[in-house]
Amino acid sequence: MRSPVLLVIAHGSRDPRHAATVHALVRRARSLRPGLRVETAFLDFDTPSVLQVLERLADDGGADDVIALPLLLTRAFHAKSDIPAVLREAAARLPRLRIRTAEVLGPSPLLLAALERRLWETGLRPSDRSSTGLVLASAGSTDPEAIAVIADIARELRHTGWCAVRPAFASAALPRTEDAVRCLRSDGCARVAVAPYVIAPGRLPDRIAEGARDADVLADVLGPAPELARLLLERYDGARVRELAALAG
């Protein structure tokens, strides 16, 4: 019996670095499970689209079971509206395909591990936490649930020993990165680091970087971190387990 295809659905961007990073992440996940068929699709700007990939899967006869994984860190508009709408349209057009949706990536301890990996890659050490204020800089959202998740993550990080942790947003919500940096300075932190809680480069991560100009440290985006690749497979496996549990019940 064939395993379901894993379809990773990214948002897409006019910035070519976005798609390149998504493809690098998917390649890493594929390398962790060589027997698994993993496909990539984009909601906007980049190709192939979700419908194009699903039509190809339906036409080639090599797959009839798909688990769609939103490459998103929180359950905001794209997870609640855009992706379900696209998948409903695909299911109506392609009745021979069985399409299920995995959970979004966050929150997860693996994301925090990837975030800290990027911080240590700047030259910071775990022992620097106590003197370093951390800005957890996300893309931002108008969805209160997504904003609350970022605030919860900031509180969780504070308990790991950072001098102070403040959330910030590149759009749709406040504070901005530069404001969070100033607040941490006024809190008395000897050093300020900005950790982008975003997957791939693009317009909003560039806005985060601009807001971090007065910080001492700016980490890279999460990108194809090994922890993130493992998380893709964890969400895929979770979708399969939920289905088996439903069938057993």
TrEMBL record:
The keyword Methyltransferase does not apply. InterPro entries: CbiX-like (IPR002762), Sirohydro_Cobaltochel/CbiX (IPR050963). The keyword Ribonucleoprotein does not apply. Keywords: Lyase, Metal-binding. Signal peptide: none annotated. SUPFAM superfamilies: Chelatase. One of its GO terms (molecular function) is lyase activity. Pfam families: CbiX. PANTHER family: FERROCHELATASE CHE1, SIROHYDROCHLORIN FERROCHELATASE, CHLOROPLASTIC. This is Sirohydrochlorin chelatase. The lineage of its organism: Bacteria, Bacillati, Actinomycetota, Actinomycetes, Kitasatosporales.
